[in-house]
Amino acid sequence: MTPSYFRPSVDAMTGYTPGEQPKPGTKIIKLNTNENPYPPSPKAMEVLRTLDSEWLRRYPNPYADDFRHSVSQVFDIPHDWIIVGNGSDEILNVVIRACTEEKNKIVYPTPTYVLYRTLAEIQPTQVLEVPYNDDFSLPIAALVKAQGAVTFIASPNSPSGHVVPIHDLRQLATQLSGVLLIDEAYVDFAADSALQLVREFPNVMVLRTLSKGYSLAGLRLGFGIANPQLLSGLFKVKDSYNIDAIACAVGTVAMLDQEYKNECAQKVKNSRVKLTKSLAELGFQVWDSQANFVLVKPQPTNAETLYLGLKEKGILVRYFKQPGLADKLRITVGTDEQNQLLLMTLASLMQG
Ligand SMILES: *Cc1c(COP(=O)(O)O)cnc(C)c1O
């Protein structure tokens, strides 16, 4: 045996497998990692063209205050209720590092965002996965019984696309003594948000990102909203200069351009309705989605066969080879043109 340089928890983990990321410019239809098919706000892109070298010579603001003020304005929340992260993934990581230790645990219903598990496995803490009920209703009693130091709920959830009703989240928050983190990465495509719960409960944080709704996955900008008491421990743990000056400047303008974001989200939602209908007409089982993707169970052709067949034709979708998901595909909603090509390719693969 070669000696290990790592902590046992790191040796034991497998590491996250991100969705395939072909080089920009590769001729491929990318429906595998839930990016927005539309470009970012033109006003935000204009910021890049007027970039001042002073921004890069100096260290950035440690709290990304310009961006916090833009969030404060848009959501009518005091700026000290906001923490900004290098993607919302960083905030997930900071919460885990700040709240967990050997003798407590991280709890979340599954299937959900696979990164929760990866981030938890790095730390010397325990993980409890509680399966969703078959109809994707929240297993509240089991989650309460577990009393996690942190409980993660993605809503809309990935890969199912369902929204967890706010009264379920409220019931959970009331009965948990640890942190309840509601991950709203896909909220821009949904009808409802649970944001009001941060005012009702001292242990609730709502997490948002610019990666999906704002078409800025490459910028790496996310934020959490919670009362300052809950944020205080997180500020101690995060890197001091976690948001670079460019991300802060571009993100601030993108946040303020709600009109553009909402316009793009509306186009995605319209396309989602059409795509859902067409996939059902192909004979697939399609789950109702409030996000910018749909979970489908293809039939009669097997999911992995279709995934590989699509890939060969230059269309990437997400296939999770794991219990409960191995017969399903998660397909990001693209432009109508991209969705049309997907549908035609699926139809031909199923005939062949
Ligand atoms: C995409 C996604 C995120 C990650 O967002 P970043 O801000 O890009 O790190 C977080 N949670 C869920 C459920 C996601 O799907």
Set out the fold topology.
Blueprint: H1 8-12, E1 29-31, H2 42-49, H3 53-57, H4 65-75, E2 82-85, H5 88-99, E3 105-110, H6 115-122, E4 126-131, H7 140-146, E5 150-154, H8 166-175, E6 179-183, H9 197-200, E7 204-209, E8 222-225, H10 228-237, H11 245-256, H12 258-281, E9 285-286, E10 293-297, H13 303-312, E11 315-317, E12 329-332, H14 336-351
Parallel strand pairs: 1-11, 3-4, 3-5, 5-6, 6-7
Antiparallel strand pairs: 2-8, 7-8, 9-10, 10-12
Helix pairs in contact: 2-11, 4-11, 5-6, 5-10, 12-14
This protein binds pyridoxal-5'-phosphate.
Compute the CA-based radius of gyration: 20 Å
**Distinct bound molecules:** pyridoxal-5'-phosphate
Choose one word for the global shape: globular
Helix content: 40-55%
In which order are the strands of the major sheet placed? 2-8-7-6-5-3-4
SSE succession: HEHHHEHEHEHEHEHEEHHHEEHEEH
- How many strand segments? 12
Distance between the termini: 49 Å
CATH topology of the largest domain: Aspartate Aminotransferase, domain 2
Mean pLDDT score: 95
Report the CATH C-level class of the largest domain.
Alpha Beta
Supply the number of helical segments: 14
CATH architecture of the largest domain: 3-Layer(aba) Sandwich
**Low-pLDDT regions:** none
Structural class, judged by helices and strands? alpha/beta
Q: Number of folding domains?
A: 2
Q: Give the full name of the CATH homologous superfamily of the largest domain.
A: Type I PLP-dependent aspartate aminotransferase-like (Major domain)
| Proportion in β-strands | 15-25%
Largest sheet: 7 strands, mixed
